[in-house]
Specification:
The protein is of the alpha/beta class. Helices cover 36% and strands 22% of the residues. The protein is globular. The structure holds N-(iminomethyl)-L-glutamic acid and fe (iii) ion.
């Protein structure tokens, strides 16, 4: 496949997301820069013009009459590389077992760690590539991927190298996060394992991962252990991220703001003080509504409140064996129907703010002159169809770096 110069014309709606090049907050989130009956000119994989009635005549023209054109989805929180599956846990969940009960019973993260340690490199690559293919077919053109199902130096590195290989060979771009502190492997006590993460793993992931994440949660890593790991990560050039306040409020939101994390993710249980700290520091709140959905929880994160507090909000799938979802359209549906985000808020959260959450907003996340041509065409007249017409794939055409996939 090669880059061709393209004119997309006649779109019923082009969602440009044009605006200041920083995470969007409050009312900015619903200002998505719509152009009606618009066109986009693409040359050498870059957007060279956008507006109405463009005078551009390349060989390839796409008539987007009646359709919606928008930036490809950016999924800023996934656990892409793992082996095996955990469909049997659903029966346990239906019997009322909680996420932590399942972990104690030998399911959960530790189960997937065993499967991942025992998988060959080739299997790991093949299984993860299939998920990446699904993501792309539902319109995700860039994602983040975390390690975290190795919990030993060798396997954590194998996961990050698998991800690097996928990034080099698959159209979807992947940003890598080291999540060695995802759970405590049964071989160690927590404090011993924290030392291994800091002294043995972190020096080796430098250069392969750009971000460092920790599962800060009651019964997993405490805020003080999380802080130690994130600070050590910073000394190796890794930018902090945090799984914060997913099940219990441990003060994760405040910790994320304090260490200068680019994002704090989950935030179901966060207290107001912590959320206000995040707003002050412009720490991005990554909402993962697929997780409470998979866990059949009644509560979702209070995205509406966070937007009103001035936290820039992004959306992600959290793709993992507990919450196996590659489809950002479904995440937008959950965000609107269960978290009271408006369709426009959700579009910003799934594109521009998501790009900010992985540091890629200079090149992707909006459709503006000079930006990379990562574009999707939806077979619907406007963006409000995204949360409205659910259960099907609305994405009709995917363009990645100017290549029609
Ligand atoms: O973000 N909470 C920690 N990690 C994942 C779940 C991982 C798993 O259950 O395998 C999450 O929800
Ligand atoms: Fe996660």
């Amino acid at each position: 496949m090669e880059t061709v110069d393209i004119l997309i014309k006649n779109a019923n709606e082009i969602i440009t997301l044009k605006g200041p090049n920083k995470p969007r907050t409050k009312k900015e989130m619903s200002d998505i820069g719509i152009i009606n009956k618009g066109s986009i000119a693409i040359k050498d994989g870059i957007i060279v013009d956008i507006g109405k009635n463009l005078n551009y005549k390349p060989k390839t023209t796409i008539d987007a009459k009646g359709k919606t054109v928008m930036p490809g989805f950016v999924d800023p929180h996934t656990h892409l590389v793992f082996a095996g599956s955990r469909e049997f846990e659903l029966d346990w969940k239906l019997k009322g077992l909680s996420y932590m009960d399942i972990l104690k019973k030998g399911g959960g993260i530790v189960y997937t760690v065993n499967e991942t340690r025992n998988a060959t490199n080739n299997d790991l690559l093949k299984q993860s590539r299939a998920r990446l293919d699904n993501m792309l077919s539902y319109g995700t053109t860039t994602c983040e991927g975390k390690s975290g199902y190795g919990l030993n130096t060798e396997t954590e590195l194998r996961i990050l190298k698998t991800q690097k290989k996928l990034n080099e060979t698959h159209p979807v771009d992947i940003v890598s996060t080291f999540l060695g502190a995802h759970a405590i492997p049964k071989e160690y006590k927590t404090e011993e394992y924290v030392k291994i993460v800091i002294n043995e793993m972190l020096p080796k992931v430098k250069g392969i991962a750009q971000y460092c994440d920790v599962f800060c949660e009651k019964g997993v890593f405490t805020p003080s252990q999380s802080k130690k790991i994130l600070e050590a990560g910073k000394s190796h050039g890794l930018i902090p991220k945090l799984h914060a306040d997913e099940i219990v409020d441990t003060g994760g939101a405040a910790l994320a703001a304090e260490v200068g994390a680019i994002s704090a993710d989950h935030l179901l249980m966060s207290n107001n003080k912590g959320l206000n700290e995040m707003a002050k520091k412009a720490t991005i709140g990554v909402m993962l509504p697929g997780t409470p959905f998979s866990l059949m929880m009644k509560e979702y994160a209070d995205a509406r409140k966070m937007i009103d507090l001035g936290i820039p909000i992004a959306l992600a799938t959290d793709l993992n064996p507990n919450c196996w979802i590659e489809n950002m359209q479904f995440i937008i549906q959950l965000a609107c129907l269960n978290m009271k985000m408006t369709p426009a808020d959700a579009v910003t959260a799934a594109t521009f703010n998501a790009a900010c959450a992985i540091g890629l907003n200079d090149t992707i996340g909006s459709l503006e002159k000079g930006k990379q041509a990562d574009i999707i065409i939806l077979d619907c007249p406007n963006h409000m169809f995204l949360p409205y017409h659910y259960g099907i794939n609305l994405v009709e055409t995917i363009i990645k770096k100017g290549i029609i996939i």
